[in-house]
Amino acid sequence: MIDFEKYKRSFKADYRFSILIPTWNNLKYLELCVNSIRKNSAYPHQIIIAVNEGIDGTLEWVEAHGLDYIHAKKNIGICYALNACRSLIDTQFVFYANDDMYFLPNWDKPIWEKINELTENQQSKNRYYMISSTLVEPSGNNPCVVVKDFGHDIETFRETDLLEEYSNLYRNDWSGSTWPPNVMPLDCWDLVGGMSIEFSPGMYSDPDISRKLWAAGVRNFIGVGNSLVYHFGCKSTGRIKKNKGKKMFVLKWGISAHTFMKHYLRQGDIQFTPVDENRLPMPNNIKQLAKRIVACLKKQ
Questions:
Q1: What's the CA gap between 39 and 87, in Å, rounded?
Q2: 4-34 tens-digit pLDDT
Q3: 96, 200, 285, 295 — which has fewest CB within 10 A?
Q4: How far is it, in rounded angstroms, from Cα 125 to Cα 263?
Q5: SS3 168
Q6: How many CB atoms lie within 10 A of CB 28?
Q7: pTM score
Q8: Cα–Cα distance for residue pair 44/32, rounded to 1 Å
Q9: Which of 213, 72, 11 is nearest to 82 (CA)?
Q10: How far is CA 2 from the centre of its chain?
């Protein structure tokens, strides 16, 4: 039985987003993350911390700063941790972030504007969505990411340089929101049941929740190019025993996560052409069948 406790400390009525941040003995990054939200946001937000263990002083720090939180004495991973935060949420928007992120000035304003743009015409097809900020990372070739090195860790982080240069890093909006930091209506979160615990501790749970939203009819998966968040990357996942999420995704959905993100979400495209039904080319269908067979054989 998973054992955790919940603590509710904030009661502010004008919050825009409820920001859920899972953390696992990663205090120095969590401090930087939370402080960046508090000083660089255009609007007030509820911050909810999912504390896994917290034996490095995290629990005491969270309590001292009056944050809402859940505390699990053992590491329960991100899927259980995020789901456990549900009853603490005060707003109509679930915003999921990682603790190794630094939020740049006014990151939330363009996201709020995008939400209003989607919903102002009151069309039911725009009521549901997933919207991501754009990550700035020190390395890589992800088409959704702005690559610029301002440090790979806390010790090498060049915060002053980043704050001086970030407005030059804006890019076009892009298609294919799936990983954090992202926001969706609370109704969306509840409709698909939050994170899927079969992906615990969390590998491939991000594309899975996007795939669940897709199955529910959501077609707006948008990355906002002028909402920037610096990401150090993999400061917790490198310490855990990973689940076989890649294989699990294929067995659950019949296609690979890569195929879903490329052909359904069209990740990285700047042309938004969502479709109600997606028919993969015949060679790709054959390839997906082969992957399902291999995944089933490996399961035996």
A1: 26
A2: 788 877 776 799 999 999 999 999 999 999 9
A3: 285
A4: 20
A5: helix
A6: 16
A7: 0.89
A8: 17
A9: 72
A10: 23
